[in-house]
Specification:
With about 475 residues, the chain is an all-beta fold. It is about 5% helix and about 45% strand. A hairpin with a 5-residue loop joins strand 31 (about 395-400) and strand 32. Mean pLDDT is about 80; it is low at about 75-85 and about 105-165. InterPro entries: Ig-like_fold, LapA-like_RM.
C-alpha cells in the first residue's frame, strides 16, 4: 500500500505526478501525491500542497520533486511548555475535565474567547497540542528548477536508483501524399510519429476545396510509421485538397502536420448540342452537360459560319452539371453549316470541350441572268446577273444553245456583292436565230438556283441567188 505524502489543495496550469513505472497522471485539487511519485510542473504552473499539520508548500513552475516516505506527515513537533508528553496524556485530559467541571465534549467557549480576560467568564484551559513520541521528520521537500527549453529530469532530492524522466514531447510528420492511377485513383498519405501515448492513434483528415472532409484513424506501427489510403471519394470534389494529421504526444500535448495535394478522381468532360435553329428569327438554342466542372463555372461558346464569321456567347454550369442558352442571335451569319464549339475548365485546371454542327437557312437562295449584248459582227455575247445566298467565289455555270441544239458553255464567278458577269463569249459556232441562255449555281445550303434568258443572233447576212437554165 502506497504512502500518501501530500494532498493537492490547488493547481494552476498543468501539474503531473509521474509514477515509478513511468505512467503519468494530471493532478487536480484533492488528488494525493504518493511516495515514489515525481511531481512535475510545467512552465508558469503552480501547485499548493498540504503536507499535514497545516504545513502547506507552494511549488512553482518548471520544478520537479521526488516524493519520498520521509516527507510523510508523521513527524514530531518540538515539545514546548504547552505540550504534553505521551505518558501524561491521560493525566492531562483528567486535569482538563476537572478544571472544566465536566467532560471536554460538554465545555462551552468562554465569553472572552480562548485568550480570556478580566471580563471573561468561567475558567478554561487551552490545549496547545497533544503529541505522541514520533521521530521528527529529518527531510524537507527538495525543489529542482528546470532550465528553459529542457524537459525536467526528476533527480534532485531522490534516493539512489529512483530517477524518473518526464516523457518527451510527441512529434508527427507527413512524409508523402500520392495519388494512384486507374479506375479508382487512391490518395495515399504516409508519415511518422515519435513519443506518442502508448497505443494511441493518428487521425488523418482529407479536406477538399469545398470544405468536405474524409477522416481515417490509424495506429502507427512499432517503428512509428503510419499509412492512410483514401479510395472512396463520395461527397468529395476534384481539385486542391489538404491532408492534416493529428495525434497526442506522451506529454499530453497535441501534435499536427499538414500537406497540400490534388485530387483527380473524376475525368473532366463536356458535351454540347444544337437544340434548334429558328431560320425566320435567325436564332439558335444550345444546351449541354459537364463532368467535374464546378457549378457556377462559365462555358465559352462560339458559333462560326462557312465564311468564318463568328458569334460568341456564354452559359453557366448549374448545380446538376447542365447548362443551356437560347435565342442566340445569328442574323449576322451566312446561311449554311454552322460549327458550334463549347469549352470550359474542370476542377483540376484541365480544358474540356465539344462541338456540334447545324444548318442555317435564313435566306432563300436565288439567281438572275441578263444578256447585256450580242455582237453580231464579232459573234460574241456579254452576260451578267446576281445571286442570293450563293457564297462569294462560287461558280455560275452558263450554257448558250442555238436553234439547232448546238451549245456553247462558259462560267462566271460570284463576287462579294453576289453579282457575276462574263463578256465576249464566243458564239461563232452557233447558227443565227434564237439563242437560249441558262445560268445555274448552288446556294449556301446546297440548293440549286438558276435562271434563263433568250436572245437573237444575226451574225450572217441573208443571201439568195437564182439561175436561169438555158
Amino acid at each position: 500500500m502506497s504512502v500518501t505524502i501530500a494532498i493537492v489543495l490547488n493547481t494552476t496550469g498543468k501539474v503531473w505526478a509521474v509514477a515509478p513505472d513511468g505512467s503519468r497522471r494530471l493532478l487536480e485539487a484533492g488528488d494525493a501525491l504518493r511516495a515514489g511519485d515525481t511531481l512535475v510542473t510545467e512552465d508558469n504552473a503552480r501547485a499548493l500542497l498540504d503536507f499535514g499539520y497545516n504545513n502547506t508548500v507552494t511549488v512553482d513552475g518548471g520544478v520537479s520533486i521526488v516524493a519520498t516516505a520521509e516527507m510523510a506527515p508523521e513527524f514530531n513537533p518540538a515539545v514546548a511548555e504547552s505540550s504534553v508528553s505521551q505518558d501524561g496524556v491521560a493525566e492531562a485530559l483528567a486535569s482538563i475535565e476537572e478544571a472544566l467541571g465536566s467532560a471536554i465534549e460538554d465545555a462551552e467557549a468562554p465569553a472572552a474567547g480562548l485568550d480570556g480576560g478580566s471580563s471573561g467568564g468561567s475558567s478554561s484551559v487551552r490545549l496547545a497540542r497533544i503529541v505522541e513520541d514520533i521521530t521528527p521528520a529529518e527531510q524537507s521537500p527538495s525543489f529542482g528548477s528546470v532550465e528553459p527549453g529542457r524537459q525536467p529530469v526528476v533527480n534532485e532530492g531522490a534516493s539512489e536508483g529512483n530517477e524518473t524522466t518526464l516523457p518527451q514531447p510527441g512529434t508527427i510528420a507527413i512524409d508523402s501524399v500520392s495519388q494512384g492511377s486507374g479506375v479508382t485513383p487512391n490518395i495515399t498519405a504516409t508519415g511518422s510519429v515519435t513519443n506518442l501515448v502508448q497505443g494511441s492513434s493518428v487521425q488523418i483528415t482529407l479536406t477538399d476545396q469545398d470544405g468536405n472532409t474524409l477522416i481515417q484513424t490509424v495506429v502507427p506501427g512499432v517503428d512509428g510509421q503510419f499509412t492512410a489510403v483514401f479510395s472512396n471519394f463520395t461527397g468529395i470534389v476534384d481539385g486542391p485538397i489538404s491532408i492534416q494529421v493529428t495525434a497526442t504526444g506522451a506529454d499530453g500535448v497535441s501534435v499536427a502536420d499538414s500537406a497540400d495535394s490534388t485530387l483527380d478522381a473524376i475525368s473532366g468532360a463536356l458535351d454540347i448540342a444544337v437544340d434548334s435553329i429558328d431560320n425566320v428569327a435567325q436564332t439558335v438554342a444550345l444546351s449541354g452537360t459537364v463532368a467535374d466542372v464546378a457549378p457556377g463555372e462559365t462555358i465559352s461558346i462560339s458559333i462560326t459560319d462557312i465564311e468564318g464569321n463568328v458569334v460568341n456567347t456564354t452559359a453557366t454550369v448549374g448545380a446538376d452539371g447542365s447548362y443551356s442558352v437560347s435565342d442566340v442571335d445569328v442574323s449576322g451569319l451566312a446561311d449554311g453549316t454552322l460549327t458550334v464549339n463549347a469549352s470550359a475548365t474542370d476542377r483540376n485546371g484541365n480544358s474540356v470541350s465539344d462541338s456540334d454542327t447545324a444548318t442555317l437557312d435564313a435566306t432563300a437562295g436565288g439567281l438572275t441572268l441578263a444578256i447585256d449584248d450580242v455582237d453580231n459582227a464579232a459573234q460574241t455575247v456579254d452576260l451578267s446577273g446576281t445571286t442570293a445566298d450563293v457564297a462569294p467565289g462560287e461558280t455560275v455555270a452558263i450554257s448558250i444553245t442555238d436553234i439547232d441544239g448546238t451549245e456553247v458553255t462558259t462560267t462566271a464567278t460570284v463576287a462579294n456583292d453576289g453579282s457575276y458577269s462574263v463578256a465576249d463569249v464566243d458564239v461563232s459556232g452557233l447558227v443565227d436565230g434564237t439563242l437560249t441562255i441558262n445560268a445555274s449555281a448552288t446556294d449556301r445550303n446546297s440548293n440549286s438556283v438558276s435562271d434563263s434568258e433568250t436572245g437573237t443572233l444575226d451574225a450572217t447576212a441573208g443571201n439568195l441567188t437564182s439561175a436561169i437554165d438555158e
